[in-house]
Structures are given as structure tokens and as C-alpha cells.
Design goal:
With 368 residues, this protein is mostly beta strands. It contains six helices and 17 strands. The chain has a 17-stranded mixed sheet that branches. A hairpin with a 7-residue loop joins strand 8 (166-184) and strand 9.
């Protein structure tokens, strides 16, 4: 089957489109109820091998199978993929400005207790649990490409509230996610990368329905993962979904790891290399809104030494490069006379409104 749409370069293609309707019967004037959606005991729809392109043909969107049942009140999507049709470093060149490139694969997505009658008649999505199984997300940011013209972007909770459909889910559960972030610096020779694995996320009271939010307006999100596949990373977020300024609070902890492991990101992006150091713990707590936020961040470490590199050659050569390294390491030793070392400093967030997430700005003094 092919369905043509002027917004897609390729038609929507699918195989084995099946519809099964059980016990369809309607009396004159009979109202539909949640147990007999469209006056049938069950409507089962199944599709396999779905494929199309989006974003002007620069991405392809596909899935192995899609199925829903009005009787079982469920929906399943298996083998989802969202990948660029051009080279990852060519995508931004086609767009003409700097834009993140995504490569997303998902084993399975399941929705339970989905109210189909509410969707059809009230244009409201009501469900129990949304399970997202083993998503793998790769993100590339190429800073060598010019930034796009300024355009205000809402943060994620604000976007959620602006959706044309009312959505309420008891919870969203993400299991065994993997995120690989890659960044090519403006003056660098190669990209740096950060990896998060074994990520489990739970979001509760997921709703943009004002009536529901008057009962409980707090969206709660907890996350546990492995940073660079070695250290435990946790995150807790609360959003007030009725707040006109999108008020939130956040806390995070990061467990013990060898600081030299982050050279895979620090060296290419910040032109510095960590020679030695063990981080025993990092913790952060923040409160704020869609414009600013403030809080505290703690860093506990020992034997921390680093070297600045030349931005062009990425080598520790030249008088100025060596002088910066010497001064930085001297500051560490002078300000930290005890073992293990501990620093707690103010933390400041200021959102850049051209992007849809909060940027973190550390104090200008050396935070080591």
C-alpha cells in the first residue's frame, strides 16, 4: 500500500495491512461506549514494513510492525528507526545552518489502557503506561557550520502544554536506553563524544490537561544510568505544569570515575587533556524556571592534573599553552590543601532562547 502526501518526498509505504472487526452492530440512536468502539466488540489493525521520508527527504522513518486493538486497549510499535538519508556530516550542509543530526532506533513501544473512545470523540489521549524499550539515540552537533537565524524555541514542558491534543498518561517508562552525543568543535580537528548507557527513566503524572493538572500539577521524572559505562549517574526532575514560567527543580549525582576517561570529550572540544585524577562524587541541586535558575554543585576529587592544548595542533607546545597549564595546576594545589579535595560552588543557569533546553554556565573561576 502507498499513501502519497505532498509534505513527504517519498510516499508512505506499508505491507500486510490487515483490519479485523468483531461483532459490528449498531442500533438507531445507539451511543458508542468505551467497550464497543465504533460499535464493534473489537477492531484490530496490523501493519508491517512501514517506510517513508520526512524533512524534505533528509530523514527516513520506518518501522517493522504496528498494531492496535480497541478491545485490549493497547498499541504496539516495533522496530522503529529514524535515520538521515545523507551522511551525518552532510545533513547540516543541506539545511544551510547548524542543526543537530539524530539517529534513533527503538526496539519496541507499547501503550496500555489506551482509551480509544476518548481519542475519537473528545480528541483526548488517555492511557495507562507507555513503555519505551531499548531506544538507542546518537546525536551529532557540528559547530563548524554557521548557527541558524535566531528563532525562539520553547523548552520541552512548554512544548508539551502547547500540543493541540490533550494527553494524559499515568506514566512513561523507558528501559535500557543508550545515548551517544558527539560534538565537532568550531576550531577542532576531530569530534568529542560522551556516552550514557543502561539508562532507565520513569515519568509520572504526564499530562497537559488543565482539569487533570488542577488535581496534581507536578510532572516527576527520575533517571538512572551509567556515565561512560563506568559511573552511576542519577537525575531527579520536577516540573510545575501549571506554572506560567515553567518552574522546576532538579537534583543529580555522579559516582566515582577516572577523570581521564572524559578526555574523549574534553580534548577535542575544550583543547585540554586531563593527565590524572579520580572523581569520587559530583552532586548538583537547582531550582529555576524557563529563563534562569540557581543552585549548588559539589565536586570531590583527588590527584587532579590537566594540560591545555593548542587549539589548532592539539599539542602541548608553545609558551602560552604551557603557561596556562602551569597556572591552572598551581591553582588546584594552592586552593586544595587537604585530601581528598572538595569544592562546593554556586551554579548558574541562563537559558539561550534559540534552543529548547537549558544551558549550564559554570562560574568563571576554575571549578577544580
Amino acid at each position: 500500500m502507498r499513501i502519497h502526501n505532498k509534505d513527504f518526498v517519498a510516499p508512505l509505504e506499508m505491507d500486510h495491512f490487515n483490519i479485523q472487526v468483531d461483532s459490528f452492530h449498531v442500533e438507531p440512536g445507539e451511543q458508542m461506549d468505551s467497550n464497543r468502539v465504533l460499535w464493534a466488540d473489537n477492531i484490530l489493525v496490523g501493519v508491517q514494513n512501514i517506510y517513508t521520508t520526512v524533512d524534505g527527504g533528509l530523514y527516513e522513518l520506518g518501522a517493522d510492525a504496528f498494531q492496535f486493538s480497541t478491545k485490549n486497549k493497547n498499541l504496539e510499535l516495533r522496530g522503529l528507526s529514524f535515520v538521515p538519508t545523507v551522511g551525518r556530516y552532510e545533513y547540516a550542509l543541506h539545511k544551510g545552518f547548524q542543526k543537530d543530526v539524530f539517529n534513533i532506533n527503538l526496539k519496541e513501544l507499547r501503550v496500555q489502557d489506551l482509551d480509544y473512545s476518548s481519542l475519537l470523540y473528545s480528541k483526548k489521549i488517555r492511557g495507562g503506561v507507555l513503555d519505551v524499550i531499548r531506544p538507542s539515540i546518537a546525536i551529532l552537533k557540528d559547530k563548524r557550520i554557521p548557527v541558524p537565524p535566531y528563532q525562539y524555541k520553547a523548552i520541552i514542558p512548554e512544548k508539551f502544554k502547547q500540543l493541540p491534543l490533550s494527553i494524559t498518561m499515568d506514566s512513561i517508562m523507558v528501559a535500557q536506553a543508550r545515548i551517544h552525543y558527539e560534538e565537532f568543535p568550531e576550531k577542532g580537528r576531530k569530534p568529542g563524544n560522551i556516552l550514557l548507557t543502561h539508562m532507565d527513566i520513569k515519568a509520572t503524572n504526564v499530562s497537559n490537561d488543565t482539569t487533570q493538572l488542577r488535581i496534581d500539577s507536578t510532572l516527576k521524572i527520575t533517571m538512572a544510568s551509567r556515565f561512560l559505562d563506568t559511573a552511576d549517574l542519577t537525575l531527579y526532575l520536577e516540573y510545575d505544569m501549571l506554572s506560567p514560567i515553567n518552574a522546576f527543580k532538579m537534583s543529580s549525582t555522579l559516582g566515582e570515575f577516572d577523570a581521564t576517561q572524559i578526555n574523549r570529550y574534553v580534548e577535542p572540544v575544550y583543547s585540554a587533556t586531563i593527565n590524572s585524577g579520580m572523581v569520587s562524587r559530583m552532586d548538583m541541586s537547582v531550582i529555576g524556571n524557563d529563563s534562569i535558575a540557581g543552585g549548588k554543585m559539589g565536586l570531590y576529587y583527588e590527584d587532579f592534573k590537566f594540560t591545555f592544548l593548542n587549539e589548532v595542533t592539539h599539542e602541548n607546545k608553545g609558551f602560552s599553552t604551557k603557561l596556562r597549564s602551569m597556572i591552572g595546576n598551581t591553582i588546584i594545589k594552592t586552593n586544595n590543601k587537604y585530601h581528598p579535595f572538595k569544592r562546593r560552588e554556586p551554579l548558574y543557569f541562563e537559558r539561550i532562547t534559540a534552543v529548547s533546553y537549558t544551558h549550564l554556565t559554570l562560574p568563571t573561576t576554575p571549578y577544580v
